[in-house]
Specification:
Family: Belongs to the class I-like SAM-binding methyltransferase superfamily. RsmB/NOP family.
EC number: 2.1.1.-
CATH class of the largest domain: Alpha Beta
InterPro entries: MeTrfase_RsmB-F_NOP2_cat (IPR049560), MeTrfase_RsmB-F_NOP2_dom (IPR001678), NusB-like_sf (IPR035926), NusB_RsmB_TIM44 (IPR006027), RCMT (IPR023267), RsmB/NOL1/NOP2-like_CS (IPR018314), SAM-dependent_MTases_sf (IPR029063)
Strand content: 5-15%
Radius of gyration: 24 Å
Number of strands: 13
GO molecular function, one term: methyltransferase activity
Protein name: RsmB/NOP family class I SAM-dependent RNA methyltransferase
Number of domains: 2
Number of helices: 22
Distance between the termini: 56 Å
Largest sheet: 8 strands, mixed
Helix content: 40-55%
Structural class: alpha/beta
Bound molecules: S-adenosylmethionine
Shape: globular
């Protein structure tokens, strides 16, 4: 990674006061623009960042620095805001948002990177100079110098000391909203593992490695082995050894994709829950953007099954079509409301993947701003929709068919809550399958999965995957 000092670039501007101020290094400017857009226009960092990096013409090292700075700052924003409040002696609400963005970016560099202190302070102050008054520039300089005089551990201690309760301390120090801390603890507690909470919150704050899936039947084992070290659990996954994942994907013409190991296991749990019979009909009910649809299409092709993918949001349905392009098999893409498919196509499918729209609280390491955007109100609306989609899927299943209910959230209102509700409504025609036993039959190494085995909850801190939930259900 670049040290961010900008060494070797042309000299700075001479200001009227006679001091020399340096221009902001492009990687830092890109990170600052991303933070502003996320705050100001609800942008998604993972979508915006590649465009901004390209537009700024950043090389590999600077692109990595811009990514680390923007993702790291967004993830740890909750903690940095407490640090800034202590250092500034005023609430963040009282600081001009563009100035606050620069302070957050500066705090991240000072407390969590090896960027030299003078570069972190001076360039953050330069960013403020570009958007605010002279007094704001002096204020930012003072706050950042105060932050720079103490270590991360010291700031963690002081932030913890100021907390109003133990949950508030954990929320502040680990930079998660307090309600998210509570729901994550509840889900771990249900497994008798509440003691893992801080390890989970830490894992949410770490950048995940790039993980690849080698689609079965589309790439031979020798070529797959060259992608990088085999995943610990997924039999078809590899960690990217080095290089640009897009270039690797292009080289393999659709046979290789970026996909979290947990997502691979969720799709395989459905396709490998029972031997595939020629001519089976499969449905991916909520398919956008199509990662699991591509894997299911490859699995269906090997077993002689037919897949239909459904995604009601047209732009996302286009992404599904694109994701399916590299799999040499015909997959119709419907654009229907999944809640109506059960009535429109009753008793039609042998297997259905219901990868439900959810809060995404299981993928916080991947979507750095997501934790600040969700609220408990979202859970109520989503779990109602998840229940309707569940009912629709049960109706659309043939007798004997299998449903995989999946979320990338461990929130119990979206996981076991929805499944229990479904069983209460449909208990005379559906029953749990032994999901843990199915998944254990797929993985390369044993998974540590407490509970009765009727469902599977994966975790970033324990398994290195997103926190995917999987429940296999069979219709009688
Ligand atoms: C968690 S994502 C699915 C991810 C996908 N399976 C993959 O692996 O790429 C949930 C999807 O459900 C879609 N969705 C939202 N409401 C829906 C509905 N009423 N019926 C079907 N799909 C819906 C969303 O647009 C979103 O694309």
């Amino acid at each position: 990674m670049s040290d961010g000092t900008g060494a070797g670039r042309p000299g700075g501007r001479r200001r009227r006061s006679g001091t020399v101020s340096s221009p902001v290094q492009p990687a830092r400017r890109v990170a600052y623009e991303v933070l502003s857009a996320v705050r100001d226009s609800d942008a998604y960092a993972n979508l915006l960042l590649p465009t901004r990096i390209r537009r700024a013409g950043l090389g590999t090292a600077d692109a990595a620095l811009a990514t680390e700075l923007s993702y790291g700052t967004l993830r740890m924003r909750g903690f940095y805001d407490r640090v800034i409040e202590l250092a500034a002696g005023r609430l963040c609400d009282e600081i001009d948002p563009p100035v606050l963005d620069a302070l957050r970016l500066g705090a991240h560099q000072l407390l969590a990177t090896r960027v030299a202190t003078h570069a972190a302070v001076n360039e953050s102050v330069e960013l403020v100079r570009g958007v605010a008054s002279r007094s704001a520039t002096g204020f930012a300089n003072g706050v950042l110098r105060t932050i720079s005089r103490s270590s991360l551990e010291e700031w963690r201690g002081w932030v913890g000391d100021e907390a109003a309760s133990d949950d508030d301390r954990i929320a502040a120090v680990y930079s998660h909203p307090e309600w998210v801390v509570r729901v994550l603890r509840q889900a771990l507690d249900a497994e008798g593992r509440a003691g893992e909470l801080e390890a989970l919150l830490d894992a949410d704050n770490a950048a995940p490695a790039v993980n690849l899936v080698a689609l079965p039947g589309l790439i031979d084992e020798v070529d797959a082995a060259r992608l990088g070290p085999a995943d610990h659990f997924s039999p078809i996954g590899h960690e990217l050894a080095s290089g640009d994942p897009l270039a690797v994907m292009r080289r393999h013409g659709g046979a290789v994709r970026v996909q979290d190991e947990g997502s691979q296991l969720a799709a395989l749990a459905l396709s490998r829950a029972a031997a595939v019979r020629e001519g089976e009909r499969w449905l991916d009910l909520c398919a956008g953007p199509g990662g699991k649809a591509a894997l299911l299409a490859a699995e269906a092709r090997l077993g002689g099954a037919e897949l239909v993918a459904n995604e009601p949001v047209p732009a996302r349905a286009q992404l599904v079509r694109k994701a399916l392009e590299g799999v040499p098999v015909e997959v119709p893409v419907w654009e229907l409301d999944g809640t109506t498919i059960g009535d429109e196509h009753p008793k039609t499918f042998d297997r259905i993947l219901l990868d439900a729209p959810c809060t995404g609280l299981g993928a916080l390491r991947r979507r750095p701003e997501a934790r600040w955007r969700k609220s408990p109100r979202d859970v109520a609306a989503l779990s109602a929709l998840q229940g309707e989609l569940f009912d629709s899927a049960v109706k659309a299943l043939k007798p004997g068919g299998i449903l995989a209910y999946v979320t990338c959230s461990p929130h119990m209102g979206e996981t076991v809550g929805v499944v229990r509700g479904g069983l209460a409504r449909w208990g005379d025609v559906i029953a749990h399958m032994p999901t843990r036993a199915v998944v254990e039959g797929i993985v390369r190494h044993p998974l540590d999965l407490p509970g009765d085995g009727s469902t599977v909850q994966l975790w970033p801190h324990r398994h290195g995957t997103d926190a995917m939930f999987i429940a296999l259900i069979r219709k009688s």
